[in-house]
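User: Fold this; tokens only.

Assistant: Input:
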Amino acid sequence: MDTGQIIQITSRLALGTLAAFFSIMLWAKTRDVAWMLMIIGVIAVYVQTVYEILGVFGISSAYIFAIDSVSLISIVLVNLPMVFFIAAFAVMVVRKSRSVS
């Protein structure tokens, strides 16, 4: 592992940790569905980052459930944050369209 990879891993973990920490702090202060979905999306991004880093170190072996050469867990973790972000934006669009009428 070279210096560039170490810097990339460290920065992703540090920034992801800060984002997850502040999102959990916001979670305690809000009960809005759209914000809750955004917070869960941020936490899912952090989980994906940790899983990818474990894969770089060779610690995670989730190839029990695999589609060809890609593990099912990695497919879910890559797409899960976007699902929560889409749901949050859809809630906001519905909310705004109802208030305009």
